[in-house]
Amino acid sequence: FVPPPEIQGISPAAGTSLGGTAVTISGAGFWTGATPSQRSQVYLCLDFAAEEGCQQILAAQVLELGEESIIFQTPSHLPGFVDVGVINPDGQQDFLGGAYYFNKPPVLTGVSPDSGPTGGGTIVTVTGSGFMSGMKVFFGDAESPDVTPASAQQVLAVTPPGPHGLVDVSVENPDGTPDALGDLFQYIAPPNITAMYPTSGPE
Known about the structure:
By secondary structure, the protein is mainly β. Helices cover 0% and strands 50% of the residues. The radius of gyration is 26 Å and the shape is rod-shaped.
């Protein structure tokens, strides 16, 4: 008797829809043969049991294959949940329904206000979509010291100190997916008094 594969867990359970996330399937009964036809195959499906919307993980995307774990690199995929399944060469299989979530990448559409002092400290509303908890906001190369979610499409970011002039604004989700808009925020230098005329007046 050859036991079927058993999937016990998926880690991490989410990643960018752009692909490239290393995911570990832990379990037992995975086949590690010398050729692809003798190895367990991994599938991502909208409905594994119904064999709908299935995408096979290619051999080149399998990073490690063991009897108790499989590490693979996710392909690009539409945002949303997928079933994760394993099929052994003898046809036996197992899957976890909705075990992995493809995150929508962030899209930055604007900021308000779009200017502030070079010393930083301006509270800026950053607008867009696909923002995740823990997202970072950058003004030029400098990261905002404080980012607070305001809604599903907005976060409040405090500007760090920056050089006089226009800088790009960029966002980065915890899964590493970024987006940016060029020359979106202007740092304004404070007035600099170098001389005063006249230097005296009537008493």
